[in-house]
Please model this.
Amino acid sequence: MLCVFKAYLNYWNLSLSNKTEFYRELLRQTKALISDETDSIANMANISALLFDALEQINWVGFYRVLDGQLILGPFQGKVACIRIPLGKGVCGTSAQTATTQLVNDVHQFDGHIACDATTNAEIVIPVQVNGDIIAVLDIDSTIFSRFDQEDQLGLEAIVAEFEQSLSVDVK
Model:
């Protein structure tokens, strides 16, 4: 698997002409990273690292896991983060509670935003579901206002869907 992933990294250096192609390649890389691994934490860690390395103008990528009725910090790349977030609070808690992607162009205008990093201005959060239950959220932050658009949302949701397919019913 490592050799396969290195081949993808070599391809990555080629110029990708548009976001659709970019996310198609990123999805292929995600599949290569997680296809032979069943540990959800290991896969969250590698997905976070891949996205942090591949996406431009971001300052944090990571997962919050749903445990004991709240979100608890999982694998991530970036600065130190909030450890616990109540469901329904902030962008991450709202995504988890509503089971919907939250694309926020200006986090300072989001009612109840939790500022783990004061330099963050835009955020996208995608819920991760197994058997209809939210088990985590993927959170990506940027210092750039309006950094994320519908193409980013579709591409990132496809990556989360691939991750969801890799999860067993026994996710802890």
Observations:
- The chain has five helices and six strands.
- Residues 56 and 142 are 9 Å apart (CA to CA).
- The helical segments are 2-12, 19-34, 40-54, 90-98, 150-166.
